[in-house]
Amino acid sequence: MSAAKWSELVSAWDASGHGARAFAEAHGVSEASLRWWKGELARRARQEPARRSPGPGRKRGGNVALARVVRRAEGSSPSIEPEPVRLMVAVGDARIVVSPDFDAQLLRAVVRALGQP
User: Fold this and answer.
1) In the chain, what are the domain boundaries?
2) Which of 27, 47, 29, 28 is nearest to 37 (CA)?
3) What does the pLDDT average to over 69-82?
4) Rounded to an integer, what distance in angstroms lies between the CA atom of residue 5 and that of residue 10?
5) C-beta separation of 54 from 32 below 8 A
């Protein structure tokens, strides 16, 4: 269906006073698509970039942050000294791991260099 048709459908939904599920079922569209198009049309009106459609089988949500898990060998005791806190800085596709004793001037220079085309 075109964006214009979705716009008409979303306007009709807003005017109907019905919930998304009931309205979508009555009009033969998925509730997820109806809700997505309502948001998409609002984004377009505000001239924001488009988001991915909730196509078939696509789940809601976005990227999932993962953490690396390291298991200790059985019988080993935890170290007394905690690991130093590290920070990861992302500049475009590059990732920079920053240790507690980093050189701030060097980090600024690297970030600046990576940020230039």
Assistant:
1) 3-45, 83-117
2) 29
3) 66
4) 9
5) yes
